[in-house]
Amino acid sequence: MKNGVVPVQVRLLVPTAAGCSVFVGNDEKVFVIQVEPQMGMVINMFMHDQPKERPLTHDLIQSVFKGFSISVDRVLITELRNGTYYARLFLQQQNEVARKIVEIDARPSDCIALATAQKKPIFVAHALFEQVDDMSAILEQIKETGSESE
């Protein structure tokens, strides 16, 4: 653990009647963040490097970032309040003179999509990681029954 954060990865996406369950975690614990169906599709496309006929919103954002020499540095899922997860997107702008890091409040789904697209790290605040229920057994059960999203 570094600076009160825990590194995690997207472990699985599972479509649900109300959207998409994003299983996030590591070997110690896995938890679920519910996202809109469209966001689940976007994250899945980035995870599998699927080509798109036309740029999606996150592709547009990445093009703007590229034009200004900005990249995602990391993502931090910070807290769970009233059933809603919160996250911070850390952006880096670097040129021959200086390096600047900017921290932005953003939805975890957008953060996960951008981090996945740019192959950047995702972290969870240690306090949040301790708070969430471990869904590892459910993840394994889904994998065994073959109900996962590909």
Summarize the structure.
The chain has 150 residues and is of the alpha+beta class. It is 32% helix and 40% strand.
Topology:
Layout: E1 5-16, E2 19-25, E3 30-35, H1 37-47, H2 57-67, E4 70-81, E5 84-94, E6 99-106, H3 108-117, E7 122-125, H4 126-131, H5 136-145
Parallel strand pairs: 4-7
Antiparallel strand pairs: 1-2, 1-7, 2-3, 4-5, 5-6
Poorly predicted tracts of residues: none
Terminal CA distance = 31 Å
Question: Class in CATH?
Answer: Alpha Beta
| CATH topology category name | Bifunctional nuclease domain
Q: What is the total tally of β strands?
A: 7
CATH architectural type: Roll
Explain the overall architecture.
It is a single chain. Strand 5 and strand 6 form a beta hairpin. The radius of gyration is 16 Å and the shape is globular. It has helices spanning 37-47, 57-67, 108-117, 126-131, 136-145; strands spanning 5-16, 19-25, 30-35, 70-81, 84-94, 99-106, 122-125. A seven-stranded mixed beta sheet has the order 3-2-1-7-4-5-6. The protein has one domain (5-145): Bifunctional nuclease domain. The protein is of the alpha+beta class and 150 residues long. The chain has five helices and seven strands.
Fill in the keyword field for this structure:
single chain; 150 residues; alpha+beta; Bifunctional nuclease domain; seven-stranded mixed sheet; 5 helices
